[in-house]
Fold this protein.
Amino acid sequence: MLPQKFKVWLMYLKLYKVRVLIAIAVIFLITAAIWGMMSLESFYRNQTLAMMPLQFIMVALNALIFVYMYMTLFSSRWGGASKNTKMKGDVVNVKWSDVIGMEAAKTEAWEVVQLIKDRAKVKQIGGKIVKGLLMLGPPGCGKTYLAKAIATESGMPFLSMAASEFVEMFVGVGASRVRGLFKKARELASGYGGCIVFIDEMDAIGRNRTFSQFGGQETNSTQNQLLVQIDGLQAKEENVIVIGATNAPEESLDPALLRPGRFDRKIYIDRPNLEEREKIFAFYFSKVKYDKSLDIKRLARKAVYKTPADIENIVKESALITARDDKETIEFRHVSEAIERIEMGLKHRRNLVPKEKEKIAFHEAGHAVVLYLLHPTEDVFKASIIGRREALGVVHHNPREEWFTHSREVLIANIKTSLAGYVSEKIKFGTTSDGCASDFRKAMAIAHGMVWSLGMSNAGLVGDYGLYGTTGHTSELAESTKEQLNKETQSILQGCLKNVEDLLKKEWNIVEHIAGELLAKEELEYDDIEAIFKDYGKIQTQS
Amino acid sequence: MRIGRRSLIAWRWFVVLLLTYSLQLITLSGCSPTYPKDKIKESIIRLCKKEYKLDVKVETVGKTVAIYLPLANLLDFTFALTPEAGEKLNQVILNVTRVVLSTDAKYNFYCLMAHDVKIPEIQIVIIKSVEDVRRFILGDISRGEYSKRMLIDMRVAPQAQKERAVKDVFSRMNIDNKWQESVMQDFFMSDPATLGDIGYWGGKFYVKDVKLDEFLAEQIANRFRLSFRDNKILGGALVLKLVKGVYIAGTQASGGSRYFRIEISAEPTTAEGFNSKTISDELFAFALKTSYDVIHGYRFEDYDYVEIKSINDGRSSTVLKEDLDNYRPKRTKIEDVMVFDSF
């Protein structure tokens, strides 16, 4: 057994053999040059030395020109070496405690870390060594962050590369880069006892291979090389663990990549829940100055379905708004504006005639009242008659908590909320406008889905009739059934319309009040809206 | 485990060690002169012997190095330098140049004296400024200019002439020969006073420490002589008999002034002679231009004026240093700077 220190030096020699050779060559050249100078008579030696500064400048200039030309002509897009391979060790420095908001994923990943650390023990027992770990989940949920934490925690070198960097127009370049990456990983592993290779956006090379004559060979060969490198025959088996990350669904990845022995473990990293969001908000707020009265719990409730990246973005945007507002600390309104800006876009003030403005105010007030009083799972976050993107007004709402399924009541509430603007316009002005086009589209789509696909019609029709359309067998669906389904769809819409009309007529004074406030202030926050309802003795519908 | 940091540390160590190593090599071996000042003579003799199998003698006087080179066939029957001798002279010059340039001793001039062993009275004396050689090697002056800057003279050794004269007198007066040596040592073989007295005779160097001022005066005369025939006006109208350049430094006779005196003796080839003012003016202008080229070529400042005398037509002119300074840069006309008088 070679001593560890010697192994490390040997690894350095292998890893940096070109540099070592260059260093030896430099020493030799310098010695030869000085030796040559020594043999010169002092006058000629001085003459040579006197010319050296100029020569240095000339050499540097030539080198610059050469490097520029080399980079221009032989950059990576022409198949040159990949520039973006990053080698990091402990310098990654993402501690396990820094990873917040993914407790389940962390627990699974911790097990992997232990397996990586206790590799020798696992081998001794005869257990299976983990070779790959695939992290799946929506973008911005911290897959890369978790991979870095694994690297730091396991204390191994970390090679990171995006899968798209392997992809080239020339067949073979991607495969060559995969070989290069794993060669480096094995060299590092020989010195440090292991190495982690992180491949981000795995789907770029990991999607199902195509076996057609019309292209795809480059991706195929890159993926084949990856498969071989992960689990192929090697002269010496080094402790190289591959961590892949992707937003793509698991089904879209090649089965060969997912089989045991390659990506043995799969960790699904989902969006954070309420408690995790609260921690994430607290973490990012700890890095900025914020008003201590700011209710982080409330913000976490508002940020349902938000990823850690979204939350980080909200806090950063809030800080920018605060700075522009010339304030020292972030207040709730700054966060509110940040969320609004991220979700709805920047405000775009249009010059509206008073009549149209009034119409928009009543339209949005209708939405707000129905949402507040009827919706079982959503909160009114803001009502506004300031234009954003295409919209002239908006009632922004947020789910109170994660719901991964939607009940009939929720869908009905969604339809009612969508129709409320139309009804409100009709009650107030006796006529309606084309401003409800998108509302109708949304309501119709929900009602259609309820009847055609979800078995939620009043007539008791069950089954997914939509399948007839997707499988190309529409002719098999009886005209009478279609007619019945469409009638049922209309029935739901009409029923909702009647309910909304009754509700708004009953609560018209609230609608008038909110519309008046909107005309006066243009925007109403959740607190303003809730205060109005409280004035009328109303409380929000709870699920 | 810190790859980046380790690599950085290794890189830093490598650079530090490389610099130390280079510095040591340079300081240990690269800064000493190749030919130390106390070994100048030996160095020249050794180089000539080792590289060209030539036996030379070397003497140093002040900041001047003198080299004596005896040769078998220095001159042919036309009294011209033989090619073989020319080559050997060049070889010695090259060796002397190498030594005087790569030594810590400060030498300003070197004189090479060569004579034919069969006719030792006839000598070739070459005087060169070390600075000229340096500038030529560094490409600061052209080859043509470099050749014009060296003084080459073929002459009968002054000491030989004196010896012959003394011997002749002693022989005619029938004086005991034991006094002959003493008289010659006391009166005729004294150290040379001018560049023209430099020579090697009777196994002894007659060398003086060459000064820049006298070197320049001699060079003005030499250049004038060399370029005279090429002058379109003067070459056809006059025959140059003599040109002499001296530097007079603050003597009582000169009233404490320091100046260059250029004396020209040229005879007209036509009946018109010096009556043509154009020719006379051209003679002075040519002498002035030559003086300017030489003095400014060396950036010599230690003089008050330049005096030019034409012996044949008795004209004389002096040009003040300030006027000579302005002559070329400000394109002053020759008549504006020259003050003529007759003597």
Remarks:
- Chain B has twelve helices and twelve strands.
- Chain B touches chain A through 26 residues (CB under 8 Å).
